[in-house]
Amino acid sequence: MSPLKFLLCMILLIGSGAAEDVPFVFDETISDVADYTSSQIERLYISSPQLAGIPTVIQALDNETMVFPITGGGSTPLGIKEKKVGEFKAVFNSRVEPENPKVREEALLFAAKYPGDLTIDQIGSIYHYLKNGENPIKGWSYIRDPRGTDYFNYANASLRIGKAAGCAGAGDCDDFAILMAALVESIGGTTRIILANNNTTGGHAYAEVYLGNLNAPDSQVEGIISWLRQEYETDKIYTHIDTDTREVWLNLDWGKDEKGNYHPGAPIFQGDKHIVICIRDDIGKTPLKIPENYKFQEKETFKPPLSSRVSSSPNSLDHSGDKEYEIDNPFEKSSPLSLPIQQSSQVPGSDYIPLGTQPTSLAKPVNAP
């Protein structure tokens, strides 16, 4: 986003109707999340060192108002402007345009590499192309907005400019989020866009894709998480969970994980406030599926009781009958997981830097993709 963009609209007038989604990390200690109560999910969020500095996501109502400064093309705000959440939604809905022939064609080319009915590997194919490109096409090219302007590219424009420049697309973080959402929506997926603010590193925008509902009879959420961990050789997949509806959303941001790799489900942007813009929310949500012919690589791993990971509660799950395996215990003193929680102002592998004397303005990546 451009410098001081909205600041990031983060003086938000929120009424009692706002709901929140909890950041959640699926790792090697987590299983059977569908059996967890809302309070258990919330306690895991609070106690997770990986989620330190990441706020819950606020689902503001369309008639609620965001207040942000007018920069006037410079670095000093010249006044205050207000905009309804619904107005932002209308802008993003118009820019995402999943039915645009150019957007649809591009999405089909990526999905066709992995035939199936809206499978997670199709989402991975889209993500890989936008972030990394495909020889000779380079990955996303970061270009900032004009001074003093909140400019949002149409998805087809980002593609067209990218083709001419020999890259997957061009623009800033909100343009990347818009095109990501457009391509996923074009093959039947459900997405949303998060507006995030960090008072130290600035503002950001990123997309998420709907994985499904944990409590649905045919839910494949945890199977998808297993596929992601195996495919990208990572122990951690970052999501948001609505503790009321049990819906799970996967992070599609351009940040890298602790190993320096880019993939769906990498760490969530840290901040002080995250606000969700639910695009195309007049249409029912469509869950993702496990890739066809996918076989789980079952391996016996240590799973400590839930009571050892969150504070005790009458609602805690009883894992007294869980089987323990003879492998290294990640909770021994020698394990990194046994270290005290460290509050961090930086996402591992983040591309963002502080702005010094302008702590609430919007920072840009140092090494923009």
From TrEMBL:
Boundaries of every Transglutaminase-like domain copy: 168-211
Region spans: Disordered: 301-369
Taxonomic source organism: Methanothrix soehngenii (strain ATCC 5969 / DSM 3671 / JCM 10134 / NBRC 103675 / OCM 69 / GP-6) (Methanosaeta concilii)
Name of this chain's protein: Transglutaminase-like domain-containing protein
InterPro entries reported in the protein's UniProt record: Papain-like_cys_pep_sf, Transglutaminase-like
Superkingdom of source: Archaea
Biased composition (Low complexity): 304-316, 334-346
Family annotation (Pfam families): Transglut_core
